[in-house]
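Can anyone check this?
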Amino acid sequence: MQPAGKYIVIIGILIVVVGLVVWFAGDKLNWFGNLPGDVRVEKKNVKIFAPFTTMLIVSVILSLLLWLFRKFF
């Protein structure tokens, strides 16, 4: 299999795994997106949501996972 094909299959498997986690544990993830530092502005006709803290946590976790992946493979 070509290297690009392997990466696409791996990414697809990861997406399925993340989807299953969200599907089965979705009710336990209510805190995700409601952390301190996530900005939510709701006015009469405008709703703005900027999940700064949540995206920072996601970025750190993904960076660690990619670092571990590169270190071992």
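Reply from J.R.: I decoded it. DSSP finds two helices and two strands in the chain.
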